[in-house]
Each structure stands twice: as C-alpha cells, then as structure tokens.
Amino acid sequence: MTTQIAVVGGSEAPEPVIALAESVGGALALSGAIVICGGLGGVMEAACRGAKSEGGLTVGLLPGREAAAANPWVDIVIATGLGEARNALVVSSASVVIAVGGEYGTLSEIALALRWGTPVIGLGTWSLNRADGTLDAGIVPLDDPYEAAATALSLADA
User: Which of 46, 61, 84, 113 stands the most exposed, by the fewest C-beta atoms within 10 Å?
Assistant: First the structure.
C-alpha cells in the first residue's frame, strides 16, 4: 500500500511558507507518497503543486460540496460537505501529518493527530505547551522541507 502523508496549513500564507509547502509536496511525491490535504488554496495548493511537479498523486478533502472549489493540482477530489469537520478526515487518512505554518484550522488538525497517535512534523507551525508548562514532544520541529518529507516517510514505516 502506498504511504499517505497529510500536508496541512493555512488557506492563505506568506510566500516563504508557500515555498516550504511546495517543496514538501515535491519531496513526498519523489518518494512515492500520496499527498493528502484539504484541497483548497495556500499551503494545500502549494503542496499539491509541488507533488504534481514531481509526478505525484494528490487527494483533496474539501470542506464544501462543490468539487470545483478544489485547487487545480488535486487529482482526487472528495467534496465532503462537512465544513471544518473535514479536518478529522484529512488527519485520519494519513500515516503522518506535516504542518506548514497555519492558523486555528491547522491547530485542530495537529491536535487530532496527536490525540490519535499520528506523528506530526512541524515546519514553522504551532508549538504546544502542556498544562505544566513543558513543551509537548508530540510535534517534531524541523526547518528543512526535504528533511520533513524524509522524516515523515521514516515515521510512516515505523
């Protein structure tokens, strides 16, 4: 079975974050992984564009019911009609989650992944502190998109 890695992040993001997401998508595709995302713009679009530029397969789980809302680099469009609840589907469809930047929707995906025991890699994303003030070790913080993809694939195989 082919490894499915979720790339999550904001539907709007600054150019440096977009570049990270595109590089992550490309690196995942070169490794044969399927890129799973929320199917819209920003980080999601960049990850899909990167994956497609390297011949990869992309899946977008849309919050709405209109398949036409998907970014042009999504191969398989799933229009859920679930709104932000579709974040749970994105996370549950992946062996590993790579969070790139992001806002509260990304935070919800990170939290669901951690709750369900799915590894999370963070590129310029949230860091979580526990109630006792210690940093949650559940997010693997990295700076390099290629290292993030390689780490995700090794965690998926573990």
Answer: 84
